[in-house]
Amino acid sequence: MTFAKDIHTFYDGQPQPAAESSSATFQSIDPATAQPLATIHTTSSAQLDAAIKSAQAAFPVWSSKTPVERANILLKAAAILRERNDDIAKTETLDTGKAWSETQAVDVATGADVLEYYAHFVASGGLDGKTTVLRPGAAVHTYKAPVGVCAGIGAWNYPIQIALWKSAACLAAGNAMVYKPSEVTPLHGNTLAAIYAEAGLPPGTFNVVYGDGKVGAALVSHPAIAKVSFTGQVSTGSKVAAEAAKGMKGVTMELGGKSPLVILPDADTDEAADVAMMANFYSSGQVCTNGTRVFVPKSRRGEIERAILARCRDGIRLGMPMDDGVNMGPVVSKAHKEKVDGYIKHGKEVDRATVLYDGSAQKLPNREGYWVQPIVFTDCTDSMRIVKEEIFGPVMAILPYDDSGSDWLETLIARANDTELGLAAGVVSNDLARASEVISRIDAGITWINTWGESPAEMPVGGWKMSGVGVENGHEGIMAYTRNKSTLVSYEKGACAGVFSKL
Ligand SMILES: *[C@@H]1O[C@H](CO)[C@@H](O)[C@H](O)[C@H]1NC(C)=O
Ligand SMILES: *[C@@H]1O[C@H](CO)[C@@H](O)[C@H](O)[C@H]1NC(C)=O
Ligand SMILES: CC(=O)N[C@H]1CO[C@H](CO)[C@@H](O)[C@@H]1O
């Protein structure tokens, strides 16, 4: 694997070791073995300034390239990413603990897709303005101008994919970026920066800084930053947005969810069980759009629960993330394991939910890694803590609902929607008219019918309510990295003549 064992702040097109004496460090840990993988040098405030200066200097160079010139460089970067897919994916597996079967197929490829999508978008006129002829001698031109230097702050569940989703839109629109990966999963940062440099991105256009929330806060509040794109927890997101507001900076906030998956009474059993598994156990449950509140009709409960149970028993293969056939690795860190374990204990002992499937029979590959055995609770009610709060782990909560009587659908929709969060929602049904009605009445930004989780470059994604502001991807995603300019041009002399002339 080709990540550096000693990782430094990246600006001006290369890693920039700090003066030894002032350099604080932290380590990236492999969650499957608890062994350190690399030492990362925390970005000092002088280095943060230098990285932002580097981006400021690169901005006029990059933004004055034509859309086709920018697109060619981004397409080259996408080609390099695809060529090195396996190497980068292995590094992501080491850093996050996610199964290789996932990272190899998803993490790099879905990032490269977005680079290609926005390269083609800008090259084919996606950001073109328009001309309005006012009168024979005058016209109004409108432009989508880049905003300048943007801050990207990533999360630990999809490290390189998130870095690519943010930087693709940012760079394609002609901006420069200073990116901070999560301190829990930092290994991809300099790898991506070096690939951009190799593809021909001018030095300073994409820079990487390292550290925890303190470095993130200094980045967001820096006066030279024009826009902030953040992925992470709701509580951090609202602090970041408040700080950005002081400088009137634009924000894109991709935050958490506690999303409902509604299985309607007419759903196929296998279809329902497959969607429920995907919505809960992909990436060991560490997906922000996970559909963790699974509403199952009481009239169909037995067979649907049996189908879910069978898939848990035969289909979840917990193990060392690089091993063949493994589809569930450890969770990302020790602190996170303790949090998820705490919720499971609470679900059993305090909420007293029924345990439908208990993965504690799943053999652990070793004693050191941050393993959480998957679990499915049923007979859950809306007020239980495991139903209301963030868990972010392989924990499914089934909420049986009454599907008899006259107003069951109303009650169901109200319950599914009854959360401050509004990231995602899904429905499984053969009746598309009813499924669409349910989806249209749940306040959530990312919704699926008869599937879960797919998030292609073409699909704008972002949460409603406390789950976020703005979207990433799709045509809408890049607009957040632009601002509007209008120019009225007079082609005739004397447009302002006469008003202040002598009478
Ligand atoms: C969904 O919840 C929001 C508040 O979070 C509320 O304004 C809206 O009316 C609710 N919709 C339904 C159909 O319950
Ligand atoms: C630019 O105008 C569009 C509408 O055409 C609007 O949606 C967008 O928010 C504007 N951008 C900014 C930065 O104000
Ligand atoms: C059961 C579970 O882990 N659900 C989590 C899904 O992800 C969100 C964060 O985006 C958490 O709030 C949920 O707890």
Structure explained in plain terms:
The active site is at residue 254. InterPro entries: Ald_DH/histidinol_DH, Ald_DH_C, Ald_DH_CS_CYS, Ald_DH_CS_GLU, Ald_DH_N, Aldehyde_DH_dom. It is a single chain. With 503 residues, the chain is an alpha/beta fold. The protein contains 15 helices and 23 strands. The strands form six sheets. A seven-stranded mixed sheet has the order 15-16-17-14-13-19-20, sandwiched between helices. The chain has a six-stranded mixed sheet with strand order 10-9-8-11-12-22, with helices on both faces. A three-stranded mixed sheet has the order 1-5-4, with helices on one face. A hairpin with a 2-residue loop joins strand 6 and strand 7 (138-146). The radius of gyration is 25 Å and the shape is globular. The mean pLDDT is 95. One 2-acetamido-2-deoxy-beta-D-glucopyranose binds next to loops.
Kindly summarize this structure in a few lines.
With 503 residues, the protein is of the alpha/beta class. The chain is built from 15 helices and 23 strands.
Number of domains: 2
Helix content: 25-40%
Number of strands: 23
Give the CATH level 1 class of the largest domain: Alpha Beta
Task: Assign the CATH architecture of the largest domain.
Answer: 3-Layer(aba) Sandwich
Structural class: alpha/beta
Strand order of the largest sheet: 15-16-17-14-13-19-20
Kindly report the name of the CATH homologous superfamily of the largest domain. Aldehyde Dehydrogenase, Chain A, domain 1
Which descriptor suits the 3D outline? Answer: globular
Gyration radius, in Å:
25 Å
CATH fold naming of the largest domain: Aldehyde Dehydrogenase, Chain A, domain 1
